[in-house]
Design a protein that fits this description.
The protein has 192 residues and is mostly helical. It is built from twelve helices and no strands. It folds into two domains: 46 residues, no CATH class; 130 residues, no CATH class.
């Protein structure tokens, strides 16, 4: 089956989906056994990438969703936050920062959810997403679901505790870059 015919089948399936005609969708699969594998892959991808309503999802629900996707697609596809995405790509914190030409301190702020998504330009967001081979929207969702891991240190002074609280406040990407230990060239590259 050539690409044009497969494209027409996909469009017919989408039209049936939009019309809510499940019988037509099943008929397409039955009537075209040669294209069945390609159509099934297309249908699965369609459902996985379908837009999700922007609602607050409980962490338990989010973990259940991730577990379900991992069971279906394997764990290489799914991540709950940026730290998990990095580790699933087999990268250390330093490797990810170097690959992105960011300071380790800046990438750590991404993983801790300190950097505000709205402070990223579209170009910056796409560059970050492209490095991890995800869409900009997916990267944004992972950034929003990344949170600072709070650690308790009984020996920590009250002043140090306040200082760490201030450090974990939200920050713009520009501010994080400016405060970073990155080279001037790397800073210019990201802020240009």
């Amino acid at each position: 089956m050539n690409t044009s015919e497969l494209q027409q089948l996909k469009m017919a399936w989408l039209a049936a989906e939009e019309a809510g005609d499940k019988q037509a969708q099943v008929a397409l699969l039955h009537d075209h056994p040669v294209a069945q594998d390609a159509l099934i892959d297309f249908i699965a991808a369609y459902h996985v990438t379908a837009p999700v309503e922007e609602t607050s999802v409980l962490p338990l629900t989010q973990r259940a969703y991730v577990t379900a996707l991992e069971r279906v697609f394997g764990d290489a596809l799914v991540a709950a936050n940026l730290r998990e995405l990095r580790t699933k790509r087999g990268l250390s914190l330093v490797q990810a920062a170097r690959g992105l030409r960011l300071g380790v301190d800046v990438w750590k702020k991404f993983e801790d959810g300190v950097i505000e998504l709205v402070s990223l330009s579209e170009r910056q967001l796409e560059r970050l997403a492209q490095f991890f081979e995800v869409s900009g929207e997916q990267f944004g969702r992972l950034l929003n679901s990344s949170q600072t891991v709070m650690t308790l240190n009984r020996r920590q002074t009250a002043r140090a505790a306040r200082s760490s609280e201030q450090a974990s406040k939200k920050q713009s990407f520009t501010e994080a870059i400016e405060k970073s230990t990155m080279s001037k060239e790397e800073k210019r590259e990201w802020l240009a």
